[in-house]
Specification:
Layout (H helix, E strand, L loop, with lengths): L1 H22 L20 E3 L6 E2 L4 E8 L5 E9 L5 E5 L5 E6 L5 E11 L8 E11 L1
Parallel strand pairs: 2-8
Antiparallel strand pairs: 1-3, 3-6, 4-7, 5-6, 7-8
Length: 137
């Protein structure tokens, strides 16, 4: 009886090991190899600089992030401000944001754009870039 239990236990262990290994694409004598995860590098912001604007004239510019592993969760202004009349809006389901509107004041406006990305099997990336919009008459 003891031998039958031992044989049954050994057989059960082999079946479980076989099922576990086949779930990972390995045979009982192989070990599943984890897939390497690409390390997250810095985000890149494009364009390098923004075009000038004119007071009272419609303005549009697009900022995109690249070199991201996962999609952008948000792109926003973290420091400084846009000229009155302009706003930055992230495009839904894209890695871009658009600055648009009609500038209501002239001058030089410096602000920092901040972006963060979702994290899944890697930590979400984040980054920032300082921009300037010069609004002329």
């Amino acid at each position: 009886m003891k031998n039958k239990i031992m044989i049954l236990f050994t057989t059960l262990c082999m079946v479980i090991a076989s099922i576990s290994c086949s779930s990972f694409g390995a045979t009982p004598t192989q070990q599943a190899t984890p897939r390497p995860v690409k390390p997250a590098g810095p985000l890149k912001f494009e364009p390098e600089s923004l075009p000038p604007a004119q007071k009272g004239v419609m303005y549009e510019a697009e900022i995109r992030i690249t070199q991201n592993i996962t999609p952008a969760g948000d792109i926003s202004i973290s420091k400084g401000a846009l000229p009155a009349g302009l706003e930055l809006v992230k495009a839904a389901h894209e890695d871009t944001a658009k600055i648009s509107g009609i500038p209501q004041e002239k001058g030089s406006f410096t602000f920092t754009v901040f972006a963060w990305c979702f994290g899944t099997m890697v930590s979400g990336q984040s980054g920032q870039k300082e921009y300037e919009i010069v609004v002329g008459e």
